[in-house]
Design goal:
Number of helices: 9
Shape: globular
Radius of gyration: 17 Å
Length: 278
């Protein structure tokens, strides 16, 4: 691993690292915030998954999460949103290719050689974080938009891994909206039955009661993507049917930007702290 930068921040350390990923077959960068802790105290980890066009720095520099994370004693890990590099397949559109990995494992060429973000987030990155940093095994996960989709499927597909999950303006039903349909048809092929493995609504519908974990979703009612791409009410209805502990909050006047995230990230961190330390 190579340390790219480090900053003192609210008595903790904000760092950016590069490492060679065997899962993605390329060099990857991630950011981490390590809160101030007492000696021999290992902080739990909140993984943050960002949205389309983002990398590991968007949340790090725009959300303002470090102050509360330092107070609560939570480490923050911010991975990139896709594989990177000259050899990695890409597309001219912002919603496919680099910056748009959708947190799945691609099966179709030219994507399958590198686009295995699901395995990277589930296996390689947490193992690296635990090996290189003094953090505990307890973890939660959160994200925005495409990253909200990623956080939800990570939690739903891996019962017992996370204490809680939250999201800002997540893509909850990607098999039925343009962003998801474009990504899935390219990464996974045209057999739509395989798409269900990466759809939060389908995964929650197939879940078991004992696997449910506390879930918080914030959605702005002025979000330009709400009606066409996001549709959180669809997941809320599945949660109602399954008695899944989901809280959906519609926030008046908020759009899809990081101003929205910055407004409510403290709520999400305190929500996760209840369960990480519970």
């Amino acid at each position: 691993m190579e340390l790219l930068e480090e900053h003192r921040c609210f008595e903790g350390r904000q760092q950016r690292w590069r490492h060679d990923s065997t899962t993605l077959n390329c060099a990857m960068t991630f950011s981490i915030f390590l809160p101030p802790t007492a000696e021999n105290v290992k902080p739990p980890v909140l993984y943050w998954l960002s949205g389309l066009t983002c990398n590991d720095e968007n949340f790090t520099t725009k959300a303002g999460a470090q102050r509360v994370a330092a107070e609560l004693g939570i480490a923050l890990v911010m991975p990139d949103t896709s594989p990177r590099g000259d050899d990695v397949a890409d597309d001219a559109g912002y919603d496919l290719g680099k910056g748009a990995g959708f947190y799945l494992n691609a099966t179709q060429q030219p994507w399958a050689n590198h686009y295995r973000m699901y395995n990277y987030i589930r296996d390689e990155l947490p193992a690296l974080v635990k090996a290189q940093f003094e953090v505990s095994d307890r973890a939660a996960i959160s994200g925005h938009s495409m990253g909200g989709h990623g956080a939800l499927i990570m939690a739903l597909k891996n019962p017992g891994t996370f204490t809680s999950v939250s999201a800002f303006a997540p893509i909850v039903n990607p098999t039925h909206v343009p962003w998801g349909q474009k990504a899935f048809s390219n990464y996974l092929g045209n057999d739509e039955t395989t798409w269900q493995e990466w759809d939060s609504c389908a995964l929650m519908q197939a879940s078991h009661a004992e696997d449910a974990i506390p879930t918080l979703i914030d959605q702005g009612d002025a979000d330009q993507f709400l009606a066409n791409q996001l549709q959180p009410a669809v997941l809320a209805e599945v949660a109602r049917q399954k008695s899944w502990p989901l809280t959906l909050r519609i926030q008046e006047g908020h759009d899809h930007s990081y101003y929205f995230i910055a407004s409510y990230i403290e709520d999400h961190l305190r929500f996760h702290a209840e369960h990480l330390f519970g």
